[in-house]
Amino acid sequence: MRLKITHRTEYRYDAPVQYLLQRLRLLPQSGHTQTVASWAIKVDGAREEVRFVDQFGNDTRLVSAEGGHNTITVEASGEVTTRDTAGVSGPHQGFAPLWLFGQQTPLTTAGDGIRELIGSAGEGTDIERLHRLMGMIRERVAYKPGATSVVTPAEEALALKSGVCQDHSHIFIAAARAMGFPARYVSGYLMTDAAAEQAASHAWAEAHVPGLGWVAFDPANGISPDERYVRVATGRDYRDASPVSGILLGQAEEKLAVTVTVEQ
């Protein structure tokens, strides 16, 4: 499937920006599940300082702005040909060792709730248990925008029984690691049946399964990603793979507007 994607992020400030530094992870790469036909990143109101590939293999760019800017826009767009691989994204690669993805992070620490969830996963093959885990998370945690934030830990989101795809992914990652599987966070895009235009990018999780490599699970939708998904960045949790993150110095109030369009 060939997908056309536009991801536009606009920051508006009520006063000139004293200093801003942003990290962009917005460039998908060709691999086992996809081939990038074309891609471009345009930034207005800020300048690119440096670009590099981080320890997780993500194309990363740092942009900055200072003085005189009230609006900054970042637009990533292009076309990607995707393949349905039943969720299997291939063997582990990159600078980060596999064992690193078995370590807990502040956002993916397993507590009593997640350990109880693991206890309900039952017996079976690795794939059967992980699919069962994905299904239980979808049943127990309702999709509810605004119920959590980007700093909400997995255990808290599970207790709230509500959250967004980021929370579903963090809960899955925390549980999978506690079950003995290296696990990681994936940010990217999903073509939905509802509408081409969306309010945000998407996120899901991957577990490293012996004999298969990395296998993807999307607890928010209860499926393993197929040809409707485009992967962009990976990491131990949201903080390692967020599309845009950064710091702002000064007294300016920020208003953020995000639009994502994914269509065949």
Task: Explain how this protein is built.
With 264 residues, the protein is an alpha+beta fold. It has two domains: 2-82 and 244-263, Immunoglobulin-like (Sandwich), CATH 2.60.40; 88-238, C8orf32 fold (Roll), CATH 3.10.620.30. It is built from five helices and 16 strands. Helix 3 (154-160) links the parallel strand 8 (142-143) and strand 9 (162-163). Helix 1 (112-119) crosses helix 4 (165-178), helix 2 (126-140) packs antiparallel against helix 4 and helix 3 (154-160) packs across helix 4. The termini are close together.
Percent range for β-strand residues: 35-45%
The sequence of SSEs as H and E is: EEEEEEEHHEHEHEEEEEHEE
Q: Please give the domain count.
A: 2
Mean pLDDT, all residues: 93
Uncertain spans, ≥5 residues at pLDDT below 50?
Answer: none
Alpha-carbon distance between the two ends: 7 Å
What does the radius of gyration come to? 18 Å
